[in-house]
# Entry
Amino acid sequence: MNPLDYRRGAVRLRVLVAFGLACMVAAAQAVRLPASAPAGIYERECGACHLAYPPELLPAASWRRLVDSLDRHFGTDASLDEPSRAAISAWLQKHASSDAKAAKPPERITLAGWFMREHAQVVLPASPAGGRGSMSDCAACHPAAAQGRFEDADGEPSR
Ligand code: HEC
Ligand code: HEC
# Structure
């Protein structure tokens, strides 16, 4: 092959690669949520006001209902743009608890039968700042809650 042809080929190849990369970037922007993103989006969007609760703490039906009514979320508005909402909803349901024993999917983790049994002896003390803490604030008693570990509670809220 004539070296000039070879060089032309290499240039064409580089142009093709650059075009391919540009297409990939464009596609990524169009899709907005790469397949691996929901966990990160979940932590950011659903960990803003409280612990990003591990999905396996509620059955899929509970998550679905919760994420379908984010505009009325326990007295607050936690609405999301539709792509984020849909991605989080699918991700939560995929990783949800497979415990289908509950006749009615609980509205809260803290209202689930297993939760009430585990915490039957746990009393929420009045907080020094006035008022009461919330059982929903898992990390107050479970220091490793953000890592999804709940076995090492000391029963004394740490804040
Ligand atoms: C604007 C603040 C805010 C955002 C954002 C938010 N939440 Fe909440 N969430 C709350 C409040 C307030 C409560 C009630 C906490 C309490 O009772 O102490 C709550 C409670 C919950 C509970 C029940 C906890 C329990 O008591 O068992 C779940 C589950 C939950 N949120 C999931 C989510 C998910 C999923 C998202 C993201 C789509 C989200 N939250 C985003 C404010 C928020
Ligand atoms: C006021 C303190 C307190 C709060 C708030 C609290 N827990 Fe607990 N939790 C405990 C105690 C105490 C135990 C029992 C001690 C133990 O088993 O380590 C326990 C036990 C558990 C267990 C069983 C652990 C095991 O290995 O048997 C799980 C799971 C759990 N909690 C999850 C949660 C989640 C999720 C939240 C938030 C929605 C939460 N807890 C909020 C104090 C608390």
About this structure: Residues 121-159 form one domain.
